[in-house]
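Supplementary Methods S3. Complex input for the flavin mononucleotide-bound model.
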Amino acid sequence: MPDLSTSYLGLQLKNPIIVGSSGLTDSVEKIKNLEDLGAAAVVLKSLFEEEIIMEMEETIYSMTNRHFVFPETMDYLETVVKEDILASYLELITEAKKTVEIPIIASINCVSSQKWTYFAKEIEKAGADALELNLFFLPSDNQRGEKEMMEATFDIIRKVKGIIQIPVALKISAFQSNLIRYVEHIDQVGIEGIVLFNRSWMPDIDINQLVISSGFVLSSHSDLGNTLRWVSMASGRVNCDIAASTGVHDGAGLIKLLLAGAHVCEIVSTLYINDLAQIRKMTDELSKWMETHEFNTIDEFRGRLSQANSGNPAAWERVQFMKHFRNFV
Ligand SMILES: Cc1cc2nc3c(=O)[nH]c(=O)nc-3n(C[C@H](O)[C@H](O)[C@H](O)COP(=O)(O)O)c2cc1C
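Predicted complex, serialized as structure tokens:
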């Protein structure tokens, strides 16, 4: 039997499949079930800075029926609501740690480096094995250039790394100018892992109601290519570990990303589309493939087809179809 174990953020994992941050990981029962079905680790549903602010606003409105409140009430509510949401999150970590053996990676969604940073310390105290920072700047702000985006990211990393000792991974969006430079700089600032990529809520238009609606939430197989491209290019250029996320739906996708240089894959959509048994199917497929190719460990083939090692670096940077689609029908 090949050895599927791997390490990520310094954590020893029994295989390279992590269940990504989502509603699949928001209770102890679900996490226990995922462990039983073969998941090597889980990333908890994110704690959202914006959600805390929204809940505060709702509480204020239900108390007063108006949006204006005295600043003292505001300060009081801010503390109470934050503590409430944080307390349930910390309880989830503590209970999960008592119940399962697999590593628990907490997740915070941050849009600034402001008030939430102290959550990181509390999360560490509750026993989380690592922290994933869920970062998503839509590059639509014409007042903020690439430099400001980078500085904001570095500021977040420095603040968090300054207050906790557990490993930290940064989950970023694919919508960044000069992604590789961005990733290299993040690595240099000092982080244990990078997650490529986050997936955003997508808007749609309801043509009957003439309103903006929610687009389809889940990824598909066709999203894999973009993740593969950037994982292969980042591999070998950064010292931190790489987690691949977006479009990994089956064992073949997992194997491709390991060949491209990923340390682990974080999966979500495939578990909603298929079912949780997909975890075992994927590890079985990896195991059979390793046997066929006579690999005993993942390190024997990880990154073999990354941009640096593939012998055909240009293939990863090709963007025009040229002759490939000339006769496409
Ligand atoms: C229903 C749903 C909820 C999600 N919630 C979060 C979240 O709270 N935090 C986060 O970082 N990512 C969240 N994600 C993104 C996933 O963790 C993952 O990065 C993304 O779906 C791409 O992986 P996939 O192709 O395997 O779905 C969510 C995704 C889905 C589909």
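The first helix runs from residue 28 to 36. The first strand starts at residue 6 and ends at 8.
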